[in-house]
Design a protein that fits this description.
Layout: H1 5-11, H2 16-40, H3 45-48, H4 56-65, E1 73-77, H5 83-92, E2 95-100, H6 103-113, E3 117-119, E4 134-138, H7 147-157, E5 163-171, H8 188-198, E6 200-207, H9 216-233, H10 237-255, E7 258-267
Bound molecules: S-adenosylmethionine.
InterPro entries: Methyltransf_11, SAM-dependent_MTases_sf
Domain Methyltransferase type: 75-161
Region (Disordered): 1-22
Length: 268
């Protein structure tokens, strides 16, 4: 393991506000989400544990594009609470391995889905070279300045020809104002260059907005979990902090300043 949220906060000199906002959003809320799912029922787990605006159409597109095969090893870097990996396991029969820097997210994913998890950043994946059949990295590139190092690490764990599935929030125009703390969005050109430098060939990409709508039943399960979290923790300042992050992201997506893109690439 390469680090965890508590160690990060204590050991790094980075901006405390950014650290605590991202910890509220990705670490604290993860545990609250797990508790709400436990109360509401296991059918709420996968939708509530997708924290990167992933939807069934988006995850199905990625799984089909990457030709995920039953029994194959899918590494999810920045897996969060594990919803996308759980969807892939149910739909395609893969064996997920999860990595995320937030200890609370790793714990929630393990308790909800029982997958192997490791706490660590994606640029220092604690996995042997060439041992992944496929890698997903969804909604993560914009949360780190170390985009090149992250992509290089994803490339290292894939053998040549193996697939990478990405969900990336891309800056459609510059500058992107009032971004959530700790977020920076690549332009299309920057993303294409970073993938090429890391050793990936882009096979296909699609705007998330061009995929079919999220099924209402899926969204309703997310809404129920979010209401349960708000009822239990609405007075906690970290709830407000996480909500502020999500509202800022919502405004950027709503205005078109930032848009979600799905990419299928292969390692050279
Ligand atoms: C928007 S969430 C997406 C979570 C998950 N991929 C999903 O789609 O549900 C972003 C995730 O990236 C993780 N993260 C932040 N910085 C990271 C890094 N340098 N390497 C790997 N993951 C990182 C966060 O802890 C968080 O869980």
């Amino acid at each position: 393991m390469t680090g965890n949220a508590t160690e990060r906060g204590a050991a790094e000199e980075g901006p405390a506000e950014e650290d605590s906002a991202m910890e509220a959003e990705f670490d604290v809320v993860a545990g609250w989400t797990r508790d709400a799912v436990a109360a509401l029922g296991p059918d709420h787990a996968v939708p509530a544990a997708c924290r990167g605006t992933a939807s069934p159409p988006a995850l199905t597109w990625l799984g089909e594009a990457c030709e995920l095969a039953a029994g194959s090893r899918l590494v999810d870097a920045g897996a969060g609470v594990g919803g996308p990996a759980a969807f892939a396991a149910e739909r395609f029969g893969v064996r997920p391995v999860l990595v995320d820097p937030m200890v609370g997210a790793c714990r929630a994913a393990r308790e909800l889905f029982g997958f192997p998890t490791a706490a660590g950043t994606g640029d220092r994946l604690p996995l042997a070279t060439g041992t992944a059949d496929a890698v997903w990295c969804l909604g993560v590139l914009c949360t780190t300045e170390a985009k090149g190092a992250l992509l290089a690490a994803l490339h290292r764990v894939l053998a040549p020809g193996r697939p990478l599935g990405l969900f990336v929030l891309v800056a459609e125009r510059q500058p992107v104002l009032d971004a959530p703390e700790g977020n920076s969005f690549p332009t299309h050109d920057e993303l294409a260059r970073a993938l090429d430098v890391a050793g990936f060939d882009v096979v296909q990409q699609v705007a998330a907005a061009d995929l079919p709508a999220t099924p209402r039943s899926w969204q309703e399960r997310i809404d129920r979990v979010e209401r349960a979290v708000a009822d239990a923790h609405g007075d906690d300042p970290r709830f407000g902090q996480a909500g502020e992050q999500q509202e800022r992201m919502g405004r950027l997506l709503g205005s078109g300043a930032v848009a979600g893109w799905l990419l299928h690439a292969t390692a050279r």
